[in-house]
Amino acid sequence: MRVISGKYKGTYLDGFNIDGTRPTMDRVKESIFGSIQNNIKNSVCLDLFAGSGSLGIEALSNGASDCYFVDNNIKVINTLKANLNKLEIKTNNVYYTNFKKALKKFRDEQIKFDVIFLDPPYKLNLINDSAKIIEEYDLLNSGGILVCEYETEQLNIDNLELIKSKRYGSTYVNIYKK
């Protein structure tokens, strides 16, 4: 697993072999960032089910001004921090907590995002729940992008405009715009 473009292009990231994680394949990540590249520069991003941080780090590599990383697995958080250190990315926005608590914290602190990545463990089917809370708390800025990576979950995100839907083997990516 590597950073595929931008400032940190070619850097290999740790975390592809942690139990309970499923890193985004390079070709999927390349397609996602090709689709949203005009929304990344100077954006504030949220990598909600961050894992090793691959999607958020890719956003930072491509000019995002900040990224918040959230995961509820301490082993993953430690790997994420090691990846950030390897790249000399300084941030205090790494949260070891569950997604509901993190989203509530962002609402309470009035933090909004331009790009939100939702790539939870496939079997947990958490995208609809996450998207519903994001909408309820109004965490996505106007014109913001919601990127959803999933396998079998039936998505019910009706209040955002679906701008891209693509299948990569058994993985699906839907990109929505507010």
If you had to describe this structure to a student in words, what would you say it looks like?
There is one protein chain. This protein is an alpha/beta fold and 178 residues long. The chain has a single domain (26-177), classed as Rossmann fold (3-Layer(aba) Sandwich). It is built from five helices and seven strands, in the order αβαβαβαβαβββ. The chain has helices at 26-36, 54-61, 74-86, 99-108, 127-136; strands spanning 44-47, 66-71, 94-96, 113-118, 140-150, 161-168, 171-177. It has a seven-stranded mixed beta sheet, with helices on both faces.
SSE diagram, text form:
Layout: H1 26-36, E1 44-47, H2 54-61, E2 66-71, H3 74-86, E3 94-96, H4 99-108, E4 113-118, H5 127-136, E5 140-150, E6 161-168, E7 171-177
Parallel strand pairs: 1-2, 1-4, 2-3, 4-5
Antiparallel strand pairs: 5-7, 6-7
Keywords:
29% helix, seven-stranded mixed sheet, 178 residues, Rossmann fold, alpha/beta
Summarize the structure.
With 178 residues, the chain is of the alpha/beta class. Helix content is 29%, strand content 25%.
CATH C-level class: Alpha Beta
Kindly provide the radius of gyration, computed on alpha-carbon positions and rounded to a whole number of angstroms.
15 Å
CATH-scheme architecture: 3-Layer(aba) Sandwich
- Class by alpha and beta content: alpha/beta
- Which percent bin holds the helix content? 25-40%
The average pLDDT score comes to 92
**Which percent range describes the beta-strand content?**
25-35%
Number of domains: 1
Total of helices: 5
Major sheet size, sense and barrel closure: 7 strands, mixed
Order of strands in the sheet with the most strands?
3-2-1-4-5-7-6
Would you count the extended β strands for me?
7
List low-pLDDT spans.
Answer: none
End-to-end separation in angstroms reads 30 Å
CATH topology: the name is: Rossmann fold
Q: Please state the oligomeric state of the protein chains shown.
A: single chain
Q: Give the overall shape, derived from the CA principal axes.
A: globular
